C-alpha cells in the first residue's frame, strides 16, 4: 500500500525517534509499504517519520542511482553498484573521509534541492529486517543517503545544513510546502 509522505512543517519530522523490538506490530507489512511508497515516489531512501511513524527505521536503495548513470559517469563513486537495505535502530558510531558536496532533495520537502556537505564515509550499528545486528562502514552516495535518512530519525532535515542566507531565501517555498500549496505526483499529508 502506498502511504502518504509527511510534508515539511509536521512536528514528527523534528522528533528524535525511538528504537523498536522484534515484536513491533506488522513490521513486515510496514516495510513492504515503505518500499512501495519509496519507489512510487521516485525516492532512493525513506525514513519512518516521513510516513508518520516515530521509530528508528529507514530503507534505501542506492543501486537505483548507479543503474541510471550514463556510461561516462561509471566508476565516479566508490560505492558503485550501491545497495538496497533496511536499517532498524541505527546509531552512527563515526565519520571518516573529507566532506564533499552533493545536491540533495527530500520527499518531505518537494521541489527543493540544495548542495549539502557531508563526510565521505559513515560507520553505523544497526539491525536488518531480521533483527540481525551489523556494524558497517559505508562510503560515497550510499553513505550520503544513510546520513540523510539517519538525520530523519534524529529529527533533522537536509535544509538544516544550509547557510542562514540560503535558508532565508527558501522561506517562502518552505511555507508553501507546509501549507499544502504545492503539487507533487505522490500522496502527501500536510501539517494542520
UniProtKB/TrEMBL annotation:
GO terms for biological process: translation. Its cofactor is Fe(2+). Its EC number is 3.5.1.88. One of its GO terms (molecular function) is peptide deformylase activity. Keywords: Hydrolase, Iron, Metal-binding, Protein biosynthesis. Binds 1 Fe(2+) ion. It holds the Pfam family Pep_deformylase. Fe cation binds at residues 106, 148, 152. Removes the formyl group from the N-terminal Met of newly synthesized proteins. Requires at least a dipeptide for an efficient rate of reaction. N-terminal L-methionine is a prerequisite for activity but the enzyme has broad specificity at other positions. This is Peptide deformylase. The lineage of its organism: Bacteria, Pseudomonadati, Bacteroidota, Chitinophagia, Chitinophagales.
Amino acid at each position: 500500500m502506498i502511504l502518504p509522505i509527511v510534508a515539511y512543517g509536521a512536528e514528527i519530522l523534528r522528533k528524535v525517534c525511538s528504537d523498536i523490538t522484534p515484536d513491533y506490530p506488522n513490521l513486515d507489512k510496514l516495510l513492504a509499504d515503505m518500499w512501495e511508497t519509496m519507489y512510487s515516489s521516485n525516492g532512493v531512501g525513506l525514513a519512518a517519520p516521513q510516513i508518520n511513524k516515530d521509530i528508528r527505521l529507514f530503507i534505501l536503495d542506492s543501486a537505483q542511482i548507479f543503474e541510471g548513470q550514463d556510461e561516462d559517469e561509471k566508476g565516479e563513486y566508490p560505492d558503485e553498484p550501491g545497495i538496497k537495505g533496511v536499517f532498524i535502530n541505527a546509531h552512527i558510531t563515526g565519520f571518516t573521509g573529507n566532506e564533499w558536496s552533493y545536491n540533495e532533495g527530500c520527499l518531505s520537502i518537494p521541489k527543493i534541492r540544495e548542495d549539502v556537505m557531508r563526510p565521505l564515509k559513515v560507520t553505523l550499528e544497526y539491525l536488518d529486517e531480521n533483527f540481525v545486528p551489523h556494524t558497517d562502514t559505508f562510503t560515497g552516495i550510499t553513505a550520503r543517503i544513510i546520513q540523510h535518512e539517519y538525520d530523519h530519525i534524529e529529527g533533522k532535515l537536509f535544509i538544516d545544513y544550509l547557510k542562514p542566507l540560503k535558508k532565508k531565501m527558501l522561506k517562502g517555498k518552505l511555507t508553501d510546502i507546509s501549507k499544502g500549496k504545492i503539487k507533487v505526483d505522490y500522496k502527501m499529508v500536510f501539517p494542520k
